[in-house]
Amino acid sequence: MTLSPSLLNSRIELSHLPVTWLQPPLRNQISDDAQFYYRCEKCHSESRVPLLLVGEKKFLKETCSNCRAKGKWKPVTHALKVTTRCLDCDLQRSAVHVIHDLWRCDRCYSARFEVLSEETDPPYPERFFEFDSPFVLLANLGAK
Ligand SMILES: [Zn+2]
Ligand SMILES: [Zn+2]
Question: Is residue 48 a contact partner of residue 131, using CB atoms and an 8 Å limit?
């Protein structure tokens, strides 16, 4: 099949990640740009997790850069949803794209697809915030 630019991009980004991130539970939290986002439950802004701290739960106690609420984080996954059509039997299918997924038709097992549409769900916010720099955070974690 021919990969569309955003699908190809997502695949390349994801292929740079450590293998352990591509297994559950982290795998289910990777957005299609290979980043991790958390939403503040108080002000609903999103912050990007420094990659050094991915898998490290203690950063969840950190303060929101937007509203200064403490420790109100929920992960958000901006996943690429792709709708494909099988070129051999015409079956249409929508699925969330994750690296290493097999691209086989459910009905005829063909690997020949056309991409009909794709969208990031939920869409990215217009702006997102950053946690403090990883080095500040690591120093704080060490002090606690
Ligand atoms: Zn907030
Ligand atoms: Zn098919």
Answer: yes
Give per-residue pLDDT as tens, 56-101. 777 788 888 889 898 889 999 998 888 889 999 999 988 876 554 5
Residue 54 and residue 26 in contact, taking contact as beta carbons nearer than 8 Å: yes
Which residues have beta carbons under 5 A from ligand 2 (an ion)?
86, 88-89, 91, 105, 107-108, 110
**Backbone torsions φ then ψ of 96, nearest 5 degrees:** -80, 130
| Predicted pLDDT at 143 | 57
CA of 44 to the centre of ligand 2 (A): 41
Ligand 2 centre from 38 Cα, in Å?
37
